[in-house]
Amino acid sequence: MAPPAEEAAQSKAAEEASSAAKPDAEAAAQSIEPAESEPKPAPSPADAEREAKLKAAAEARAARAAAKAKAEAEAAEAAQAEQDTPKEPSPRQGDLDRYVRLIEETIGVGTVQESGLNELNADMPMLVIAAERWPETGLLLRDNGELGFNYLRNVSGIDYETHLEVVYFLLSLDTGQDVAIKLKADREAPSVPSATPIWSTANWNEREIYDLLGIRFVGHPDLRRIMMPDDWVGHPLRKDYEPLDSEV
Predict the structure, then answer these.
(1) Can you point out the beta strands (E) in 103-205?
(2) φ/ψ (deg, to 5) at 36
(3) Which H or E element spans position 101?
């Protein structure tokens, strides 16, 4: 073991060496400057153009969405305003009431099963007539001086799945007034009286409806198929029609 005096001398020498080394370490640390961050490369013209296009597209989408929302809000507001505003009576309401009154007084109560105005067709009066009373009602509509529907403009057939319907569109060439007459027919055995004896122009229209929907027109002078072959099975305009060849 070294004497105490020698140990003290060694400890003092170590402290002095440590103190001398500190300034050198601090100087070395101060001499080291922090590394500067590397600058980001500038975007290429292609990238800049792409970024501009994406921004423009996003702005356009936002503008379209805003315009659509505004239009929908304005439409909803207009619809609500229309609902809140009482409708003016249709000028055709008087015609409809007159047709119903004349038919009911002349043919009988219950002849007109339903009545109304077709708002999508200039408020054309529409009457659903009991099929069995159609022949005498047709004569009244043609020959009555207040009505005078002397021209049959068109005939349509419709399959409503629950029933079939025939619609006769009549016109007065003298007054310009019009009316739609509807006849309902049972789907299983559809049959209504023919209008051909009253308006001869119904001839081919009724044949076409018979051919494509299978509605029989009692009293028609020549009821046979007009488009499909005589041996054709089924009626192509019926909603339950299943063609033998799916390509036809």
Answers:
(1) 112-118, 124-129, 151-159, 164-171, 178-185, 191-193
(2) -75, 140
(3) helix 93-106
Q: In 3-state terms, what secondary structure has residue 64?
A: helix
Gap between the Cα atoms of 103 and 138, Å rounded: 10
Structural domains present in the chain: 93-187 (3.30.460.80)
pLDDT on residue 221: 97
Distance, CA of 241 to CA of 115 (rounded, Å)? 31
CA distances from 213 to 62, 165, 202, 210 (A): 51, 10, 16, 6
Instruction: Supply the Cα-derived Rg of the chain in whole angstroms.
Output: 46
pTM of the model: 0.66
Query: Is 116 in contact with 96 (CB distance < 8 Å)?
Result: yes
Taking 3-state DSSP, the helix, strand and coil percentages for the chain, each rounded to the nearest 5, stand at: 45, 20, 40
The two beta strands, 112-118 and 216-218, are unpaired
Q: What's the rounded Cα separation, in Å, for the pair 174 and 154?
A: 18
Strands in the chain per DSSP E: 112-118, 124-129, 151-159, 164-171, 178-185, 191-193, 216-218
How far does Cα 183 stand from its chain's mean position? 28
User: Scanning the structure block, which residue is given the tokens 């077709």?
Assistant: 118
Which pair of structure tokens corresponds to residue 75? 């439409």
Please state, in angstroms and rounded to a whole number, the distance separating the CA atoms of residues 57 and 145: 68
Predicted confidence (pLDDT) per residue in 204-234, tens digit: 999 999 999 999 999 999 999 999 999 999 9
